[in-house]
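Example 3.2
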Amino acid sequence: MRRILGILLGLLLIGGVAVVVLVREQGPHTTATKTVRGVIGSEKSDFFRDPDVVKALAAQGYTVKTETSGSWAMERLALREFDFAFPSSSEPAKEIEAAAGVQGAQETRPFYSPLVVIARAGAARVLTDNGLARTTGKNSGTLLMGPFLKAAAEDRTWQQLSGSAAHPELTGTVFVKTTDPATSNSGALFLAVASAVANGGNIVADDAAITRTAPLMHKLISVQGALEPSTDDPFRAFISGSGEPLILVYESQVASLLMQKQGAGNVADMVVLYPDTTVNTAHTFVPIGDGARELGTLLVTDPTLRALALRHGFRPQDGVPEFTAATAPHAAYLNPGLTGIRQVGTPTVKNLMALAARAKGQGDTP
């Protein structure tokens, strides 16, 4: 009996040592993380899927799972099922806070990205020759919003523009392909800019201004046919060689494409036109649950995450020098300092959504 007990004790001791060794070997290499769920604009999907971003977040104690939505549609989701929302600008953030019951939440704005219009070289040349754009190089330039909107108001076609005959692919009404302004941030902010220009440079701030600018906004949207929920699909179509000749996207999508050398075969034919009047699109992090409260701050302050945001084409807050340095090899396409670009404010959410409804032919007849 003593012999059997001795053998059992010996086995237990050996097992105990093995457990201790296993814990000691695994412990230092294991990072405890908490899983948080967020709803984000689709333009940030590649950022959160990036293995280096996943690794950097894990090092800070986070596993982040996301799903996408148009920024202006987020408020209609079951937000209490998420730990955070990350729309593409600050305008829908207040609506999200109200819908989630977290008014006064500590928002952060980790990065931003201007809106740009990407064009085929032939389309950019025709626009420039007809005074609707100004090119500053082979692959960059400015969309002149005043002349462009005048052409839109007159229902100008590509065939009516001088020099278009050399580009048989340019047919039909001249327009910029946008997203749905009722649900998507980029489409909504394009209306904000266009309506301000059409309103004499003033923000649309009342029913009279909405009524005054609605017919032109309706032309900008109705000519497009089916509207996209996000910039992702039109951008990918353009890069693949299909799609419309003028597409509204975020600068971050272009910068990321250039820095990560994707789709190189179609980049040579791309011209990046910055609208001469624009609004800031500050991607705004809204914490909903306590679990994600510090995540927004990390995206602002963590050097690794800031560097990774740059790699995905975003401009970190107060990071113009960083963005300029990171995109220096691609200066032929980009305007890091936004030289010559006028910033305007945005209408209230109520007025902007009313304008979007009128642009889509809803509500009062445009």
